[in-house]
Amino acid sequence: MTANDDYLRGYRDGYRDGLLGVRTGDRVDITPSAPASKAKKTRKVSAYSRRYGAEYKRLKRKHPRIKFGALSKKAHAATRKAMK
């Protein structure tokens, strides 16, 4: 027997074992066990972010077809001006 025959036999046996496991429901979980994650803490929304959202919504109602980039630029400018 050559090394290639050993490889093919091992490959075939592993394939067969995998099929048998799937058929009988004896699946093995190979994923690494992750530690239990803590609940994600939400961050407080800043005053700037709140004001920006309001400015963006106001501009979007006024100019619904303008692209996001142009609207956000105007909204940021309005927010900076208002919070000065």
Summarize the structure.
This protein has 84 residues and is mainly alpha-helical. The chain is 64% helix and 0% strand.
Q: Which labels suit this protein?
A:
mainly alpha; 64% helix
Count of helical regions: 3
List low-pLDDT spans. Answer: none
Report how far the terminal alpha carbons are from each other: 83 Å
Number of strands: 0
Largest sheet: none
Calculate the mean pLDDT score and round it. Answer: 85
Derived structural class = mainly alpha
Overall number of domains: 1
How much of the residues is beta strand, in percent?
under 5%
How are the secondary structure elements laid out?
Layout: H1 3-24, H2 47-62, H3 68-83
Helix pairs in contact: 2-3
Describe the structure.
The protein has one domain (3-27, 45-83). The model has no long low-confidence stretch (mean pLDDT 85). α2 packs across α3. The longest helix has 22 residues, at 3-24. The chain has three helices and no strands. The chain is elongated, with a radius of gyration of 30 Å. The chain is mainly α. The chain starts with a helix and ends with a helix.
